[in-house]
Design brief:
Oligomer: single chain
Strand content: 35-45%
CATH class: Mainly Beta
Order of helices and strands: EEEHHEEEE
CATH architecture: Roll
Number of domains: 1
Length: 108
């Protein structure tokens, strides 16, 4: 099991097929004995609003300014993100597959 310092991941762009789907805004972990184990990563502009507990206000602001985009919030399972190079995390599946994990709020 790899160990990566979270400060090396926070705010990094997540790339898939040569394009960015957003920045890592939050890392979700669960207690496993004495350890914390990462279960998923939250990526995208709405993940930032979720982190700040202002998602309803944030959504309204983004809608008002017509900035709501398809990469609103991605919930990426830990095993679908390659963090072997923390400076350039890469998605290991297509962004369309993330919806199958309950993971993509596409602003619909």
């Amino acid at each position: 099991m790899a160990n990566v310092n979270l400060e090396h991941l926070a705010g990094r762009r997540v790339l898939t097929q040569g394009r960015s789907i957003g920045h890592i805004e939050e890392v979700i972990a669960e207690q496993d004995g004495d350890d914390l184990v990462v279960t998923e990563f939250h990526v995208g502009i709405f993940a930032a609003f979720e982190r700040l507990s202002a998602s309803a206000i944030g959504t309204a602001l983004l809608d008002f300014f017509a900035l709501r985009r398809r990469e609103g919030l991605y919930r990426i399972p830990w095993d679908k993100l390659d963090i072997s190079d923390p400076a350039q995390p890469r998605l290991l599946c297509s962004d369309d597959e993330l919806a199958g994990f309950g993971g993509a709020d596409r602003g619909k």
